[in-house]
Design brief:
alpha/beta; six-stranded parallel sheet; 10 helices; 44% helix; 13% strand; globular
């Protein structure tokens, strides 16, 4: 589990599922499994395979129960699309507004494309930003201030290295509603600066 206190962190790293984890996946919490799926536009509902629907519902149960989790599907089974669908549903339900995605630099553009193609068209006024080292520092700081000043939904994608160097700025102006860690094993060593930086972020729930 990569979550701490109130924040909901979802790792997209592959892990070997133990029997107990499988039972947790199949458990029936007091959350309507159809709620998050029904919140999606029909074009996304129709694209979700059965195993992806199960993943989105499981992530939604985790969210409702105020806990984080590790989405451990094999590579190529659409973990990014599952998380994008979850975020799209939560944003359409107006349950979240500010989302932070921390990932390796190699997949920042993939996240951006997925969100722009499958979330942005279906969430009114949604903005998707990539904050990276190529962006001037003043522009990065301005975006991070605006996120907590404006009430419109916003998703920020950044890298582990940049986040580590700017952790104070990411936490300075308020709390994130949802935080995603792609390749979450990157922070498995709690003694590293990077791990401490990520665990310093707080969420509203």
């Amino acid at each position: 589990m990569l979550s701490k206190s109130h924040i909901k962190r979802v790792s997209l790293s592959f892990v070997q599922e133990q029997d107990q984890q499988v039972e947790e996946w199949e458990s029936t919490d007091e959350v309507d499994d159809d709620e998050i799926i029904q919140a999606l536009p029909s074009v996304l509902q129709e694209r979700l395979f059965e195993h992806q629907r199960a993943g989105v519902n499981w992530l939604h149960r985790k969210y409702k129960n105020k806990s984080g989790g590790i989405l451990g599907d094999d590579m190529g089974l659409g973990k990014t699309f599952q998380v994008t669908s979850l975020l799209c549903g939560l944003l359409r339900l107006k349950e979240i507004r500010r989302v932070l995605i921390i990932c390796p630099v190699s997949v920042t553009q993939s996240w951006s494309r997925e969100l722009r193609d499958h979330a942005k068209p279906h969430v009114k006024s949604l903005t998707v930003d990539i904050i990276n080292s190529e962006m001037p520092k003043k522009q990065r700081e301005r975006i991070l201030r605006e996120i907590f000043m404006v009430k419109k939904p916003r998703i920020v994608i950044t890298t582990y290295s940049l986040f580590t160097n700017m952790a104070d700025h990411f936490a300075l102006n308020g709390k994130w509603d949802y935080c995603i860690l792609d390749e979450g094993h990157t922070i498995k060593n709690p003694a590293t600066k990077m791990s401490k930086a990520v665990h310093s972020v707080e969420g509203d729930r």
